[in-house]
Write a structure and sequence with these properties.
Layout lengths: L13 E6 L5 H4 L4 E3 L3 E4 L8 E5 L5 E7 L4 E7 L7 H17 L10 E6 L8 E6 L2 E6 L2 H5 L1 H11 L6 E4 L16 E4 L7 E5 L2 E5 L14 H8 L6 E5 L5 H6 L5 E6 L2 H15 L5 E5 L2 H7 L6 E4 L11 H18 L4 E7 L6 H15 L3 E7 L18 E7 L1
Parallel strand pairs: 1-4, 9-10, 14-15, 14-17, 15-16, 17-18
Antiparallel strand pairs: 1-3, 2-6, 4-5, 5-6, 7-8, 8-9, 10-11, 12-13, 18-20, 19-20
Helix pairs in contact: 2-4, 9-10
Length: 406
């Protein structure tokens, strides 16, 4: 595959936004979102992705970010007056890299798949960058970062100390539809002869296909939960629901009696089989099933004493919240009903609009409806390379409960 030709230049236009009186308080508390209802006026005729300087009603400067015409009008990347040029973003990316070095993620000898930029958690709302070996996979969630994606890509080799050789832009499915940017996935720097590569996570090997796989190709955010799972699998019969490419399954194979992977995608389960083979060869303890998760749970017997529920986001917007909570209750009730006595349930929600309390309440109702005694062993969240800004609790999207079921 050849490098995608450069065709887009940076957006240099800056607009001025003035907030309504009294609407500056959240900005002063360093929350990175400004909602459209707080905006009193916008200079000129702004285009989605323009750089916006934000002022209070008394003309006091507040912040700088990217403009969008939706409910979130500005996503802030600086609370200090700045020139958002190449050097500015180089420093922001270097801060993200230094944080991951300090957190012990970058440079690990047994792990070369990790997140370099996590949106609001790194002060770059609308930008995600995952590293798989020498390849960076970039996703722009806003027009602002999509317009400067080539500049960002060009900074990555320097910021990572020469680690990054290629950058793949996978923004086609993440950009706002109404922006009408007509994005196309492809390499914006370097190239790779294969559609993916084999990476290492805590010494385990996984094939990652960033071109065709979900998200950026692998669910890096479950790394710590996979490590925790391994501590509890000894001699157990493990069922990995919504198993995708077998991340949890590979860890469970370390010491489980058997591991079954279930996913609705035959392509995903084939990759799960490959990942198990990469680590354990032709091991008869593992088997995969390409089928609907709810149907599988409903029809199975009580044959498993460790079940993992890691479904896709049941709700991406608040108007789907109630339906999502019902889905979590139904799913967890099925698993709690079928799991063997003394079994362990690892259950997760990756829906940002579902709060930690909402998710825990749904699992509580599911447990109460089954009548079984359930204890919480662990509560988990995102790993350090998916940081949550203390000023932006909305970025805490991943919630997990590890339960003991009598």
């Amino acid at each position: 595959m050849t490098t995608k030709p450069a065709s887009m230049t940076s957006v240099t236009r800056t607009i001025r936004i003035t907030l309504r009186k009294g609407k500056e308080q959240s900005v002063k508390r360093f929350h990175p979102w400004i909602f459209s209802g707080a905006v009193a006026s916008v200079s000129g005729e702004p285009v989605e992705g323009d750089v916006a300087e934000v002022f209070a009603s008394d003309n006091t400067y507040l912040a700088t970010g990217h403009w969008a015409p939706g409910s979130i009008a500005v996503r802030i990347f600086s609370f200090s007056r700045c020139t958002p040029d190449r050097e500015f973003f180089r420093k922001k990316l270097m801060d993200a890299m230094n944080y991951r070095i300090s957190a012990g993620i970058a440079g690990k000898s047994d792990t070369n798949a990790w997140r370099l930029v996590h949106g609001e958690g790194d002060g770059l709302p609308g930008l995600v960058i995952d590293l798989y070996g020498n390849v960076a996979v970039l996703q722009a969630h806003t027009a602002g970062f999509w317009h400067i994606r080539e500049m960002i890509a060009g900074l990555l080799p320097e910021v990572t100390g020469g680690l990054v050789h290629s950058v793949y832009d996978k923004s086609e499915g993440t950009l706002p539809f109404m922006a009408k940017l007509n994005p196309s996935n492809g390499y914006i720097m370097g190239a790779n002869g294969e559609t993916g590569t084999v990476v290492s996570e805590n010494g385990f090997r996984f094939r990652v296909d960033w071109e065709k796989g979900q998200k950026t190709g692998f669910f890096i955010d479950q790394r710590d939960s996979r490590s925790l799972l391994r501590q509890y699998c000894n001699g157990r019969s493990v069922l990995n629901m919504f198993g995708y490419t077998g991340g949890f399954s590979v860890y469970a194979m370390s010491n489980a009696a058997l591991v079954h992977t279930v996913d609705s995608s035959a392509t995903a389960t084939a990759t799960a089989d490959e990942n198990v083979y990469l680590n354990f060869g032709s091991d008869p303890r593992h088997r995969s099933f390409a089928t609907d998760a709810f149907s599988f749970l409903s029809s199975m017997e009580s044959e498993y004493d460790l079940i993992i529920l890691d479904p896709p986001a049941f709700a991406k917007h608040h108007n789907a919240l109630n339906q999502a909570l019902q889905g979590y209750r139904r799913l967890n009730a099925l698993a709690l009903k079928k799991i063997k006595p003394g079994g362990l349930l690892f259950t997760f929600s990756c829906s940002q609009v579902v709060s930690r309390d909402d998710f825990r309440r749904s699992v509580f109702v599911a447990a109460a409806n089954t009548g079984r005694n359930v204890r919480i062993l662990h509560q988990t969240g995102q790993p350090p390379d998916h940081p949550v800004s203390i000023y932006h609790p909305e970025s805490e999207y991943l919630k997990g409960l590890m339960l003991y079921v009598e």
